[in-house]
């Protein structure tokens, strides 16, 4: 009885929300979990008959299965999306998720790098080797623009507008955004293009991809991770660093510098500003530490 609803929801996610295939599948798995629960508890209702109390019990069931609060929230996001679709398409008279509370979770503050640490890591790139020049251009771009690793490996030459200082980025759900790019990143991209990339035999289908491996194909995300891990080790930095750390650091440095949160949200490509607000939490930690260190009422 749920299959026609699921098919309609899938088409809605693809057409109305323009989500990627992976995101669509993730949302459908969330609905599968709900139907699995309804079957397991022998309370199989049609979507329009499901009530708030059913969803509350479902979340408790998911928690008992060992899902973390973060995973529970992720599942709940899929359920909310499904009922939003049902309500819009008039397949349900009410949305039972309206009063459903998200599981309480502690938002972990990610490791961040200081500007000096980022400079030290980028400085480890061996410019005597072609891949060293490419890697320097990649890291300068990641920090300058706050890109996700998937965005940097998919960056296209046709999306570069160095004369006006912008790049066009294709993010999650194939959503495009324009992001400012700094002069250092532009400089090292140009060096890479003019002195390194021109000597690479490009594989068919990769002509417009900016950063290539030695075989002329698009880089993998794993390659970026391993490259960064090697440079971090050489720089003697003992933090838990991943390509995403550059993105976190980009955002944190902007917020600490007084940037408007909406502007940071736009540059990061966050759909919701609540995702961007984690960086105000990072900034508050810094402010609290400063207060305890320098304010006379807090000194011990």
The rounded Rg comes to 23 Å
Order of helices and strands: HHHHHHHEEEHHHHHH
How many individual helices? 13
Q: Largest sheet at a glance?
A: 3 strands, antiparallel
Helix content: 55-70%
Descriptive account of the structure:
- Strand 1 and strand 2 form a beta hairpin.
- The longest helix is centred in the first third of the chain and has 20 residues, at 21-40.
- This protein is mostly helical and 300 residues long.
- 55% of the residues lie in helices and 4% in strands.
- A 3-stranded antiparallel sheet has the order 1-2-3.
- It has helices spanning 3-15, 21-40, 52-64, 69-88, 115-122, 130-145, 149-153, 183-196, 221-234, 243-256, 261-268, 273-276, 278-294, and strands at residues 160-161, 166-170, 176-180.
Brief characterization of the structure:
The chain is mostly helical and 300 residues long. The protein has 13 helices and three strands. Strand 2 and strand 3 form a beta hairpin.
Annotation keywords:
300 residues; three-stranded antiparallel sheet; 13 helices; globular; 55% helix
Secondary-structure map:
Blueprint: H1 3-15, H2 21-40, H3 52-64, H4 69-88, H5 115-122, H6 130-145, H7 149-153, E1 160-161, E2 166-170, E3 176-180, H8 183-196, H9 221-234, H10 243-256, H11 261-268, H12 273-276, H13 278-294
Antiparallel strand pairs: 1-2, 2-3
Helix pairs in contact: 1-2, 2-4, 6-8, 6-10, 10-13
């Amino acid at each position: 009885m749920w299959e026609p609803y699921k098919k309609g929801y899938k088409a809605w996610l693809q057409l109305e929300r323009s989500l990627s295939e992976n995101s669509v599948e993730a949302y459908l798995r969330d609905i599968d979990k709900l139907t699995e629960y309804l079957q397991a508890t022998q309370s199989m209702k049609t979507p329009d008959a499901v009530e708030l109390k059913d969803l509350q019990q479902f979340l408790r069931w998911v928690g008992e299965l060992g899902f973390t609060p973060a995973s529970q929230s992720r599942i709940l996001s899929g359920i909310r999306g499904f009922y939003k679709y049902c309500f819009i398409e008039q397949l349900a008279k009410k949305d039972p998720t309206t009063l459903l509370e998200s599981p309480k979770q502690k938002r972990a503050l990610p490791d961040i790098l200081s500007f000096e640490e980022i400079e030290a890591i980028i400085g480890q790139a061996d410019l005597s080797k072609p891949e060293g020049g490419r890697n320097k251009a990649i890291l300068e771009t990641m920090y300058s623009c706050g890109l996700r690793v998937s965005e940097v490996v998919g960056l296209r030459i046709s999306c570069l507008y160095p004369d006006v200082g912008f790049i066009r980025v294709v993010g999650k759900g194939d959503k495009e955004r324009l992001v400012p790019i700094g002069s250092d990143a532009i400089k090292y991209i140009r060096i890479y293009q003019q002195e390194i990339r021109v000597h690479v035999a490009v594989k068919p289908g990769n002509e417009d991809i900016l950063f290539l491996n030695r075989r002329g194909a698009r880089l993998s995300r794993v390659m970026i991770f391993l490259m960064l891990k090697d440079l971090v080790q050489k720089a003697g930095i003992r933090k838990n660093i991943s390509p995403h750390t550059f993105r976190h650091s980009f955002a944190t440095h902007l917020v600490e510098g007084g940037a408007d949160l909406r502007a940071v949200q736009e540059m990061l490509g966050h759909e919701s500003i609540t995702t961007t607000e984690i960086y105000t939490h990072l900034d508050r930690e810094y402010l609290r530490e400063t207060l305890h260190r320098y304010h006379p009422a807090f000194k011990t």
